[in-house]
Amino acid sequence: MPYFAGFSSYRVSDPDGPVPCGLWYPTHTKAQQLTQGVYDMHVAKKGEIAQGRFPLIMISHGSGGTRFGHCKTAEMLAENGYMVLAPEHPKNNFFDDRGVGSAHTYQYRSRHMKSALDAFLGDPTWGACVDPQRIAVFGFSLGGYTALTCVGARPYVKGLRQHIRTNREFDPIFSGYEVIVRDGFDDDYLPTMADPRYKACIALAPVSGGLFPKASLQDITCPIQVFRAERDMILRNPFHAHDIQQNLPAGCDYHVTPKAGHFSYLSPVREDAKATLGELANDDPGFNRAGEHAKIHHLMLIFLDKALS
To answer: Is the peptide bond preceding residue 18 cis, with omega within 30 degrees of 0?
Structure first.
């Protein structure tokens, strides 16, 4: 661990509204415990960033999540020499979820990421610390979908409609949301905003449900890493992560996390907070979230080191 993790808050603007962001980065300032909601982070709050130019990882949280949902992963990345910026998606976060499941949310999440990246790279203090040739995007659940759209995936709404119609019995929770189509969106493809600055993509338990057939993924050229939770009851196999893995033109670095549920990819919370958070914080017997995250982090570092070299 060559660095401590520095932490600060950052704020950008988007046509959908203000976008608060969590920012983690390498520092030589000693880290201390910092409680943030249900999480205990080990960071140097507002510590001075280490000298150099560092790769940047952009994190997109899941539907109804927060910028802190993957704080321990961000902390680990900062300790290993990465900067991490995690925007909180307007109207689809824990504090304001008015846009949940809407065509607008699915269309503009990639723009939220671009707004954050544009502002950050243009910041005279922080932008000078980023290596612009080594930027990757990371996302969980709907954030995994977002990450894929950021690197060129085109959501095929006609495929989603077909999936909801034919697989409602086999993928009941996701199909029941009737995302996008409930708004009467009729075009075959949902326009999103790809960004060529991303050189790699990590998607954990990503949403598909017919949105990403082969034709939708044909423009992706960067390396992709995909994780599937073996016991995911929210996004049932094989309609999401597995489907994406099968349809990516150059394949991907694909991993199945044994005994994991959908929310097992969220950072571990404090013990005293677990009782009120249900499946967001509690896993099936035999699954050790902190221990499994250590394995996942190892795989991520190997992937990023190669993809961004």
So the answer is: no
